[in-house]
Amino acid sequence: MAEPVRVTVWNEFRHEQANARIAAIYPDGIHGAIAGTLRALPGLEVRTATLDEPEHGLSEEALRQTDVLTWWGHTAHGEVADEVVERVQRRVWQGMGLVVLHSGHLSKVFCALMGSSCMLKWREADERERVWVVDPSHPIAQGLGEYFEIPQCEMYGEHFDIPPPDELVFISWFQGGEVFRSGCTFRRGAGKIFYFRPGHETLPIYHQPEVQLVIGNAVRWCAQPRGVNPSYGNALPIEPLAGYEGPDFRGHPNAAMAAD
Ligand code: ZN
Q1: CB of 113 within 8 A of CB of 90?
Q2: Ligand 1 centroid vs 21 CA: distance in angstroms?
Q3: Distance from the CA of 201 to the center of ligand 1, in angstroms?
Q4: How far is the CA of 200 from the centre of ligand 1 (A)?
Q5: Closest by alpha carbon to 170, among 200, 199, 216, 138?
Q6: What are the structural domains of the chain?
Q7: How many Å lie between the centroid of ligand 1 and the Cα of residue 229?
Q8: What is the mean pLDDT of the chain?
Q9: What is the pLDDT of residue 249?
Q10: Which H helix or E strand runs over 222?
Q11: Cα–Cα–Cα angle for 232, 55, 81, rounded to 5 degrees
């Protein structure tokens, strides 16, 4: 049997504690709702982590044991420690998958990995969203029709300041007239990243079956086989090289480092 995909569902978990209306929609927190969705799927091993836990629940060890991290944040992006952001970024480079949800577009983690402002237009008017599948054979769209609708949403509009995605899976249309690249994939180092737009703290969007289906598909798509561990830096030849006497770093500015 294949090894389970180890998922960490991360949530800043502030709105749900501060606002009774939001708590009524997500009584177990947004992380609880997303973890519940993922736990219903076979082959996944799911834990949750939140901002106010020590190291935000994302210690070196916790990340080492994580194959895919999902990220929801909004009001407290600035409270995420830079050290943890760098740790997450390094794990993505090593091959950890990352699913960034909705307002996570402005998280330090996503902005660091994108290298751009990740700004967009937004509006709270409880308008309708039609999410179009523009890459019908993509594994993340598996099980959907040509499009699905979210009856009430917060609008996100272009321009979305991200680098051009490797693949574009969804484009959203909004009742007010805007469009948005709602499902984007990226690769950074050995890691796969998926940004998925839907979800807002005051609306029950993470209870909607199509949204849950996409998040499950995305987690599977981002998960990597635990395969090759490449090494980097100065390399001894594999075959004999006539005349090669090995590294000589004398006089090189990195001599001390290279001697390790
Ligand atoms: Zn929102």
Answers
A1: no
A2: 15
A3: 6
A4: 4
A5: 138
A6: 5-223 (3.40.50.880), 234-260 (no CATH)
A7: 38
A8: 94
A9: 64
A10: helix 209-222
A11: 75
Count of H-run helices and E-run strands, the chain = 8, 9
Report yes or no on whether pTM surpasses 0.85: yes
Q: Residue 203 Cα, ligand 1 centroid: separation in angstroms?
A: 9
Residue 213: Cβ within 10 Å count: 18
Give residue 105 CA to ligand 1 midpoint distance, Å. Answer: 10
Instruction: Answer whether 104's CB lies under 8 Å from 71's CB.
Output: yes
Distance CA 255, CA 260 (A): 9
Tell how far the Cα of 154 is from the centroid of ligand 1, in angstroms. Answer: 6
**Hey, what are 71's tokens?**
């990220």
Neighbouring CB atoms inside 10 A of 126's CB total 14
What does the alpha-carbon distance between residue 70 and residue 253 come to, in Å, rounded to a whole number? Answer: 41
Distance 122 CA to ligand 1 centre (A): 8
Name the residue type at position 235.
A
- Please give the angle made by the CA atoms of 53, 85 and 192, to the nearest 5 degrees: 110
pLDDT digits (tens, 9 = 90+) for 70-122: 999 999 999 999 999 999 999 999 999 999 999 999 999 999 999 999 999 99
The answer to whether 107 and 100 have CB atoms below 8 angstroms apart is yes
Please report, for residues 153, 181, 196, 215, the alpha-carbon distance to residue 200 in angstroms, rounded to integers and kept in the order given.
7, 17, 12, 15
Q: Are strands 97-101 and 121-133 parallel, antiparallel or unpaired?
A: unpaired
* pLDDT band per the 50, 70, 90 thresholds, residue 260: very low
Distance in angstroms (rounded) separating the CA atoms of residues 51 and 59:
12
Ligand 1 center to residue 182 CA distance, Å?
13
Distance 71 CA to ligand 1 centre (A): 13
